[in-house]
């Protein structure tokens, strides 16, 4: 009786030790040894371990699995079109922009942070260069065109309609000038210059009338002439005729009298006065965008996110292909430290691996008991 019990117990213990040790060894052989072991030229079987030996294949399979079933265009589309995700992204980006703007960074500091140094000088040089290029480009483009082809027709119509008003204004200003003391002096000088070339007539006029009296007589007559209806008609007719001629002239007829360098300098100086680059660069970005901040938050940013989401949704397949996700995952796994990988797996599945070892011991013990019983009965 005692011999039977001792035999069964002994075989149970042996079976448990063998079963537990076998499972423990099998688990360890998944990773170890990390490298093949050679005895001379002969490589020891089961070296290296399963995972080190199949690391390349495992890396390729995991990369293929991720691209084919996990990170797919459909999964990306689903995430990008999820309303909760959109709202979270909008809130996150708004917070980041607000935090960044509140730092008080100037536009110049931002550009220098982007490795664009002396931005004011660069912008001024760029503006001047573009103005010069545009000037010569427009000059070449319009040189053979008439004013009618260059100036918008509406502008010319407005000018044509206002010719009578312009004539009235000219007559009014002429009348005001010639009735003034300055005008009277001018009339006197003009009369004197006119009659001096006529010999003795001027001497006779001075003797019988006098310069001032002659000017006083001419002054009201000149004023009457200016206010005569026919004067306005003649002036309007002349202006309309000259305007018609002016409209038919080619641009090069005006441009040939233009000094290019002076014109370019004038345009550059005007642009510099209108766009004060240094002042803009020295202002905080938060101040520059302040008038548009609410609009950016309420409409611009959501629209940009929507456009970006739609683009990524349509191009996600191509993006994944260009990023070569499968190759990245394969390369990372292939270069991953085997020791670190073993530690991670054991850390994650420690309880399960211990249970597998215990299960092997239990199964080995049960098998040992069965064997002990069979041996006892057979003997």
Strand content: under 5%
Count of individual beta strands: 2
Low-confidence residue ranges: none
Mean pLDDT comes to 80
Q: First CA to last CA: what distance?
A: 13 Å
Tertiary shape: rod-shaped
> What's the gyration radius in Å?
50 Å
Biggest sheet, spatial arrangement of strands: 1-2
Order of helices and strands: HEEHHHHHHHHHHHHHHHHHHHHH
Helix content: over 70%
Quick overview of this protein structure:
The protein has 379 residues and is mainly α.
Structure overview:
Belongs to the UPF0754 family. Keywords: Membrane, Transmembrane, Transmembrane helix. It is found in: Cell membrane. The chain is 81% helix and 1% strand. The mean pLDDT is 80. It has 379 residues and is mainly α. The longest helix is centred in the last third of the chain and has 31 residues, at 293-323. The chain has helices at 2-29, 50-53, 55-70, 73-80, 83-101, 107-113, 119-142, 147-150, 153-161, 163-178, 181-196, 201-208, 211-227, 229-248, 251-255, 260-274, 277-282, 285-288, 293-323, 325-334, 338-348, 350-378, and strands at 38-39, 42-43. It has 22 helices and two strands.
Key attributes of the depicted protein:
single chain; 379 residues; mainly alpha; two-stranded antiparallel sheet; 22 helices; 1% strand; membrane; UCP032178; transmembrane; DUF445; transmembrane helix
């Amino acid at each position: 009786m005692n011999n039977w019990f001792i035999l069964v117990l002994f075989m149970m213990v042996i079976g448990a030790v063998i079963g537990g040790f076998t499972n423990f060894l099998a688990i360890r052989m998944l990773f170890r040894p990390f490298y093949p072991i050679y005895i001379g030229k002969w490589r020891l079987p089961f070296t290296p371990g399963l995972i080190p030996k199949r690391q390349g294949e495992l890396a390729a399979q995991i990369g293929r699995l991720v691209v084919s079933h996990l990170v797919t265009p459909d999964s990306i589309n689903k995430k990008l079109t999820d309303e909760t995700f959109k709202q979270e992204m909008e809130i996150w980006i708004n917070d980041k922009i607000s935090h960044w703007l509140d730092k008080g960074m100037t536009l110049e500091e931002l550009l220098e942070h982007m490795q664009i140094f002396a931005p004011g000088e660069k912008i001024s040089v760029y503006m001047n260069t573009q103005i010069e290029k545009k000037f010569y480009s427009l000059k070449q483009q319009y040189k053979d065109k008439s004013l009618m082809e260059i100036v918008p027709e509406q502008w010319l119509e407005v000018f044509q309609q206002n010719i009578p008003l312009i004539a009235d204004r000219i007559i009014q200003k002429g009348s005001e000038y010639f009735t003034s003391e300055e005008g009277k002096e001018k009339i006197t000088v003009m009369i004197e210059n006119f009659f001096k070339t006529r010999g003795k007539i001027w001497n006779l006029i001075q003797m019988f009338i006098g310069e001032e009296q002659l000017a006083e007589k001419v002054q009201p007559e000149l004023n009457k002439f200016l206010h005569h209806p026919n004067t306005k008609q003649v002036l309007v007719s002349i202006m309309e005729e000259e305007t018609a001629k002016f409209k038919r002239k080619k641009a090069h007829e005006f441009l040939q009298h233009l000094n290019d360098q002076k014109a370019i300098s004038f345009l550059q100086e005007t642009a510099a006065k209108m766009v004060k680059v240094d002042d803009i660069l020295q202002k905080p970005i938060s101040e520059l965008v302040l008038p548009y901040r609410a609009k950016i938050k309420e409409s611009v940013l959501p629209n940009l996110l929507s456009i970006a989401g739609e683009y990524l949704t349509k191009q996600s397949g191509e993006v994944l292909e260009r990023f070569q996700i499968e190759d990245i995952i394969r390369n990372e796994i292939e270069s991953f430290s085997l020791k670190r990988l073993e530690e991670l797996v054991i850390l994650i599945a420690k309880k399960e691996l211990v249970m597998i070892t215990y299960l092997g011991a239990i199964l080995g013990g049960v098998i040992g008991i069965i064997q002990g019983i069979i041996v006892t009965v057979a003997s």
